[in-house]
Amino acid sequence: QFQLVESGGGLVQPGGSLRLSCTASGLALDRYAIGWFRQAPGKEREGISCISISGGQRDYADSVQGRFIISRDNAENTVYLQMNSLKPEDTAVYYCAAERSQYCQMVHSWYNYWGQGTQVTVSS
Questions:
Q1: Residue 86's closest CA among 36, 34, 19?
Q2: Cβ within 8 Å of residue 20, ≥6 positions away
């Protein structure tokens, strides 16, 4: 059975960094475009980054551009989201999503496979 699992969340001070991982069991991620999304309490799910199968396309939301870096290691079946210069407004549950497509989109309704999410809290 296909499963996506996020890890790496936690509590960090403003200005700090975290690296989230998205791993898969039951299928090879190298056949899937991957997106990262987040949802804060009372807010809609927001697309923040996505990466194509090859890694040649990497898109970012304006809110994280220049601070977050998405990457993938297909040999490890893992996609990463390096989050730097974290702000309190980055606090949310972070999800990864997969869709069998060469290219990615930051539209949550486009993805069919989702992880359960990992909490990121940015607070002093």
A1: 19
A2: 6, 7, 8, 9, 36, 80, 81, 83, 94, 96, 118, 120
85-124, pLDDT tens digit by residue? 999 999 999 999 999 999 999 999 999 999 999 999 999 9
C-beta neighbour count of 120 within 10 angstroms: 23
Instruction: Decide the pairing of beta strands 118-122 and 10-12.
Output: parallel
User: Can you give the pLDDT at residue 57?
Assistant: 98
Confidence class of residue 1 from pLDDT cuts 50, 70 and 90? confident
Q: Which helix (H) or strand (E) holds 49?
A: strand 46-51
**Chain-centre distance of CA 44, in angstroms?**
16
Q: Which amino acid is at 12?
A: V
**DSSP letter at 115?**
B
Which tokens sit at 117? 């999410």
pLDDT tier at 26, thresholds 50, 70, 90: confident
Look up tokens 């990992």; give the residue. 118
User: Which amino acid makes up residue 102?
Assistant: Q
What sign does the dihedral 33-109-63-84 (CA atoms) show? Answer: negative
